[in-house]
Amino acid sequence: MIGVLGEISVDSAYAHFFGTPLWRYNFLPVHHAYTSAFSPILWGSFGFYLYLMHHQYERWSRKQLFRLALIFSLEAIAIEAIADLITKVILGKYIYYYYPSTLWHITAFQNLPFYFLCGFAIIETIHWFKASPHFFTVISAWVTYVTVALR
Questions:
Q1: Per-residue pLDDT reduced to its tens digit, 75-88
Q2: What is the pTM of this model?
Q3: Coil, helix or strand for 30?
Q4: Rounded distance, CA 65 to CA 21, Å?
Q5: Distance CA 117, CA 51 (A)
Q6: What is the chain's percent helix, strand, coil content, to nearest 5?
Q7: Between the N and C ends of the chain, which has fewer C-beta atoms within 10 Å?
Q8: Concatenated DSSP letters for 35-49?
Q9: At residue 113, does pLDDT exceed 70?
Q10: What is the pLDDT of residues 121-133, one digit of tens each?
Q11: Using CB atoms within 10 A of its CB, is residue 60 exposed (0-12), middle (13-18) or buried (19+)?
């Protein structure tokens, strides 16, 4: 849910302030190609990865959570670049295309601050989710459905 809503929010804000979007989805685009109907699968996979790799984050101090958010953001950039390259080979086109060419249009350094902020949102969401998993599962499913499927 954070990923899908974050994509729409970040790219809308980026386009507003810089006059051009940061990226464009080529595969099942929705919401001005800021996100995709495929994004819940992409972001769900990334969330599952974070859960498997960092499921004991509660042991980290608040100072270390800053580092964990940075790790999340660097991992997101690496994973999205890998996913985009794989789909280029399999489908013959990128899932998403970044307008800045700093990283060959497969990702962008401009994402790092946004992913860093999303890292904190993910950490807080995991904390809330553990407190009430059924409630947040239903809310996440509905918000994602309304955002993507009802575009």
A1: 888 888 998 999 99
A2: 0.77
A3: strand
A4: 30
A5: 18
A6: 70, 5, 25
A7: C
A8: EETTHHHHHHHHHHH
A9: yes
A10: 877 777 777 778 8
A11: middle
